[in-house]
Amino acid sequence: MDLNPPIHLPDFFIGEPAPVYRELRKNSPVHWTDANGGFWGITRYEDIKWIASRPHLFSSARGVLMPGPNIDTDEVRPMLITTDPPRHQAMRRIISKGFTPRHINAMEPGIREIVRGALDRAEPGVELDYAEGIVAPIPTRIIADLLGAPHQDWEQFRAWSDASVGSADPDITLTSREALGILTTYFQNLIDLRDEVRTNDLISILMDAEVDGERLSHDEVMAFLHLLLVAGNETTRNLISMGTLTLIDHPDQLQKLIDDRSLIPSAVEEMLRFISPVTHMTRWATEDVPLRDKVIKKDQPVVLLYGAANRDEAIFGDDAEEFDITRRPNPHLAFGTGQHACLGLSLARLEARVFFEELLARFTRIELAGEVLRMRSTMVPGIRRMHVRLGAATTRTAR
Amino acid sequence: MMKIVVDRARCTGIGICEAIAPTVFEVDDDGGLVLLSQLVPHGVAAEVAEAVEGCPTLALRLEP
Ligand code: SF4
């Protein structure tokens, strides 16, 4: 096999990365790619865990996206995700307040309502764009609601968020910089409103937050808001759309889930493992670090390929490449691991669980009706368009 | 009986432990982790072990 896979290109991720990952885990687990200034790709589960739990050796401060032509590592915005300890700990605790299991569980009724509203758009037997029409608006609304953005603005978020992640998708006309500018102005308005009246939403929590006795800087608040919007949006959308597609591709598993909906939480975990909606995060070595038969040099980027770790046979066994909704235990790394493990993981799990509960309560036939169009991104290569026909197995089409 | 030890310097308070073993772990409104029991209670040992294992920051430990 060609051991110089184009890991730096979106096409790699929207193609069939699994066989390449298998090969790399086996023969080149710490793998150098020359493109884009060069980076190490890490594919074994244990290695990724080891790196992610050593933030002093592997920093996030120079950015977490893999090196690429549009990525500027000298001008990284000060976000939670790009902050190293000890400041990271303090900042993380503040924002965690908004994401504790109790806090998130309290959102369930609101989420269910948003999901039901979205599913109301689907008529039995009628083909529709499932990814764009049903799934995409859901996480955006939920995160916008969490941030405290007015409902009438929800739809706009989606376009801005899509554009601001800087995906190489030709359908997106706003540049990432333009989208960031629009979002900044928008968030500034929300902040100004809260300067007058505080509410109990996330923006207010951030404005009152102190680290080492100091308020967060304006840039930090801004970056937080942007991070939350983007992180809460694409990723969950991808999980639900790709999760549905994976069920369609595995009819036996879909049937099992229809027959026993109590399997939904474990099916969601398996979707997370199998799809790994976020393909990677990057770290930068702060000193020379030997790893297996290689030495990662100071200042070199290390790309943690979660999708590869999540198929690691050393952890998941001989059936690691299979989709099994009853898999247990399932210690996947889809949310990353270490200090920077995804803050929104309880929320993402809840959204996906409620979505599949509501979907399968209404529809037990899910069929693909056309081609699937993927998002050209190296980080969250989701689904842009996916036409689907939904139907209830028991009800015959009238007349 | 095993004792639960929390490394406060590591814990980020996101409550994965609470999601797995809510009778033992709870993240309070300030984002701090509260142990509802210092010792592993009867009947939930498996959950607690899973929570310890599942903590992404390796902040939890069991001690004899
Ligand atoms: S899972 Fe770990 S980091 Fe998260 S609250 Fe529990 S102990 Fe703290």
UniProtKB/TrEMBL annotation, chain A:
Stored PANTHER family: BIOTIN BIOSYNTHESIS CYTOCHROME P450 (PTHR46696:SF4), P450, PUTATIVE (EUROFUNG)-RELATED (PTHR46696)
Which protein, by its recorded name, is this?
Cytochrome P450
**A single GO molecular function term of this UniProt record:** steroid hydroxylase activity
InterPro entries per UniProt: Cyt_P450, Cyt_P450_B, Cyt_P450_CS, Cyt_P450_sf
Family the entry assigns: Belongs to the cytochrome P450 family.
On whether Oxidoreductase is a keyword of this UniProt record, the answer is: yes
Biological processes per GO annotation: cholesterol catabolic process
Q: Which UniProt keywords apply?
A: Heme, Iron, Metal-binding, Monooxygenase, Oxidoreductase
Fetch the Pfam families from UniProt.
p450
Where does this protein come from, organism-wise?
Pseudonocardia cypriaca
Which Gene3D superfamilies does the record match to this protein? Answer: Cytochrome P450
Q: Which SUPFAM superfamilies match?
A: Cytochrome P450
Coiled-coil stretches noted in the UniProt entry, renumbered to this chain: none
